[in-house]
Amino acid sequence: MLVAEDGGTFRMTIEPTAEDVRVSWTITQGDGAAAAAALEHSMASDNVTLEDRFVSATGSKVGRGVTGVWRVVQLFDGGDGVRYARLVSAADRSLTKTVAAAALLDRSLFRHAG
Fold first, then answer.
1. What is the DSSP letter of 114?
2. Rounded to an integer, what distance in angstroms lies between the CA atom of residue 98 and that of residue 67?
3. Of all helices (H) and strands (E), which one includes residue 29?
4. C-alpha 8: how far from chain center
5. 40 by DSSP, 3-state: which?
6. Verdict on whether the full-model pTM lies above 0.85
7. What angle do CA 96, 100, 102 make, to 5 degrees?
8. Which residues have a Cβ under 8 Å from the Cβ of 68 and sit 6 or more positions away?
9. In this predicted model, what pLDDT tens digit does every residue of 53-81 receive, in sequence order?
10. Could you give the CA distance from residue 104 to residue 114 in angstroms, rounded to a whole number?
11. How many Å separate Cα 106 from the centre of its chain?
12. HSE-up of 97 (CA within 13 Å, CB side)?
């Protein structure tokens, strides 16, 4: 649930498909300009697809202090029903990590790298 400065709130819905993850937002309270701005700011994208590139929003480092750019190389459904993305470091392909695909859409965690 996202809460805006004007008290507006939003609910996020995640819809995994075979090739990507789609996220939609529904206003549950309020409709002011601050609520719309908060929603716009919170969304990195409406989906995650193969070959998307992300950087950590917190500036985490990879290897020898180089800011990490991570590329989506696989999307899959885990045994827990959560959609996951397997990421590979653009700087060092031997570095991999797996995160919930929805986490890549959370601007407090990741940002699209372009």
1. -
2. 18
3. strand 20-29
4. 22
5. helix
6. no
7. 130
8. 55, 56, 60, 61, 62, 89, 90, 91, 95
9. 999 887 655 554 445 899 999 999 999 98
10. 13
11. 4
12. 15
**Cα(7)–Cα(15) distance, integer angstroms:** 26
Cβ-proximal residues to 17 (8 Å cutoff; 6+ apart), any chain: none
Tokens of 78: 């885990």
**Coil vs helix vs strand at 54:** strand
Residues in Cβ contact with 67 at an 8 Å cutoff, skipping those fewer than 6 apart: 55, 56, 59, 60, 61
pLDDT digits (tens, 9 = 90+) for 8-17: 666 667 776 6
Find out whether 99 and 87 touch, Cβ atoms under 8 Å: yes
Cβ 46 vs Cβ 34: under 8 Å: no
Give dist(CA 33, CA 6) in Å, integer.
Answer: 8
Please name which of 95, 99, 77 lies closest in space to residue 86, comparing C-alpha atoms.
99
Q: Which residue has the tokens 């993850």?
A: 21
Domain ranges for the chain, please list them: 2-47, 50-112
